Amino acid sequence: MSGLELQDFAVARGPCDVLRDISLSVRGGEFVGLLGPNGAGKTTLMRGALGLMAHRGQSSLSALAPAQRARTAAWLPQAREIAWPVTVDTLIALGRLPHMGSGQRPGPADQAAIDSAIDRMGLQAFRSRIATQLSGGEQARVLITRALAQATPLLMVDEPAAGLDPAHQIGLMETLAAEARDGRTVIASMHDLGLAARFCTRLVVLWRGGIAADGPPEQVLTPDLLARVFHIRAYYAQTDHGPICQPLGVVP
Ligand SMILES: Nc1ncnc2c1ncn2[C@@H]1O[C@H](COP(=O)(O)OP(=O)(O)OP(=O)(O)O)[C@@H](O)[C@H]1O
Hints:
Layout: E1 4-13, E2 16-26, E3 31-35, H1 42-50, E4 56-59, H2 66-72, E5 73-76, H3 88-93, H4 108-120, H5 136-149, E6 154-158, H6 166-181, E7 185-189, H7 193-199, E8 202-207, E9 210-215, H8 217-220, H9 223-230, E10 232-239, E11 242-250
Parallel strand pairs: 3-7, 3-8, 5-6, 6-7
Antiparallel strand pairs: 1-2, 1-4, 8-9, 10-11
Bound molecules: adenosine-5'-triphosphate.
């Protein structure tokens, strides 16, 4: 299974449903940008779908046994927490645990996945560094690399570009887009509409507990949706560099 199927999916937080009646089908090869204002339920959708939070309705992922789920989906949480002062290499190798037997050390296939992820994220020079001594953006890149090393058919990342400098944001989006082109499913919650428009193949906008729009960027990021959901007006154009979406101002 490389995609994600949600059917009549709903999640309550406290006394209220944050999400309700969500039906969503995402296939291998898609790079989905999950958009929505603060509090729209992006994290809730991903955590619920993964089975990290109680939900109603069906999620193809949460229905899996935990060991199989860990081999199916890698997850980058919004909070970039590194608890132990281990080396970057050691931390990234933890991404291979779902593929290894108990007490087993990484084999050649695991090492190849680790090396490939480190190359793709440009972390070669950091391999021996203590992860907790890195900057916030560097730690974020290490945790993304751990998720890539997990080499799962589905990658779910919560605001992956947050805290990265412009070059690393673009590099990360190119890496995620390449993962999708290789047939994997990538779902990324995002606030940067410019990056989402340029790199995602599909945008899903959450608003008021449901899906306000779902489709290719040019069909989703309309002036009406941007004003109604995000309370902004933006410049949007198709260019030789791909679509450009630049927020310009706030509308009431
Ligand atoms: N423990 C909780 N108890 C009650 N409500 C909660 C709890 N955690 C989150 N919420 C509420 O659930 C809603 C959805 O939160 P969620 O984190 O999924 O939003 P989000 O779209 O990811 O937002 P952001 O863009 O700010 O990260 C918010 O209104 C939030 O206040």
